[in-house]
Specification:
alpha+beta; 6 helices; six-stranded mixed beta barrel; four-stranded mixed beta sheet; elongated
Length: 265
């Protein structure tokens, strides 16, 4: 009877995760939210990849907002608050319920100014919802990813922010900023060519716990006419590129017009 029960036992579906060992790129099977020791499996940043700067680890303060609309949004902005939304969906990606909130204008402006817009939109934050901004009572504390940010065209003041819940099990589509390095030693650039930047960000499907703050683009070996493709980006093996692998990121173009004119004289 015991053998029969074992044979008919339903197999639990499993997810894949990556360890930080030398076999980090290998797929290892675990349960969706519970490992063999009944603790939640969480991915961590690997040694050779960028990690979020703890200097900008900040808790965003928010208050509930009862309703939406242009008049209410205008009143919120005059009161020094940014009308915002937190999407509360189960998998952290598709449609679902939402919570109306307002956040402090000065805090969002400071974070955007310090980080830059694209870097702000690729960084996780803790968010605390309180009855009043000055209150010590916390209604809810969640981890969020800024999804959309609208700024005033003239003043760059934040007009509204959309956040998305980022629990550990979520897979999130993120436009990760690119940081170009190695211009000073690039063979092509040292010959007088110029860098044609095609992409400033690249979209990846990222496990919430390891969203990269940026991705390095190494130009140190690029010569004239050579391209850097999306597949050449070095990222955590758990990240999935959403765009085509052969999509160009940048290219070392021919000599500058001014240089060519000098040579022709």
């Amino acid at each position: 009877m015991l053998n029969l029960m074992r044979a008919t036992h339903t197999r639990i579906p499993r997810l894949r995760f990556f360890s930080q060992s030398s076999a980090a790129a290998a797929l290892v099977e675990e349960t969706p939210s519970v490992a063999q020791d009944n603790t939640q499996v969480r991915l961590t940043y690997l040694e050779d990849f960028p990690k979020p700067d703890p200097k900008y680890a900040e808790t965003i303060l928010a208050v509930p907002r009862a309703a939406s609309g242009s008049n209410i949004s205008s009143k919120e902005r005059k009161a020094g608050r940014v009308p915002s939304i937190v999407f509360e969906q189960e998998d952290g990606q598709h449609g679902g319920n939402k919570r109306l909130i307002s956040v402090k204008t000065n805090q969002i402006r400071k974070l955007v100014n310090h980080l830059g817009r694209s870097f702000f939109l690729s960084r996780l934050f803790d968010l605390e919802v309180r009855p009043e901004l000055a209150s010590d009572e916390v209604i809810e504390k969640i981890r969020v990813l800024p999804r959309l940010l609208h700024l005033h065209a003239g003043t760059d003041a934040p007009l509204n922010v959309t956040f998305i819940r980022a629990p550990s099990h979520a897979l999130l589509k993120v436009d990760v900023p690119l940081v170009y390095r190695g211009e000073d030693v690039s063979p092509g650039l040292r010959k007088g060519s110029y860098l044609n930047v095609i992409k400033r960000t690249v979209k990846f499907l990222c496990p919430a716990d390891i969203i990269p703050p940026y991705i390095d683009v190494d130009l140190s070996e690029l010569d004239v006419g050579q391209k850097f493709l999306a597949k050449d980006l070095k990222v955590h093996p758990a990240l999935k590129l959403i765009r085509p692998e052969d999509e160009p990121i940048c290219k070392i173009m021919g000599g500058r017009v001014s240089d060519q004119q000098k040579k022709s004289k």
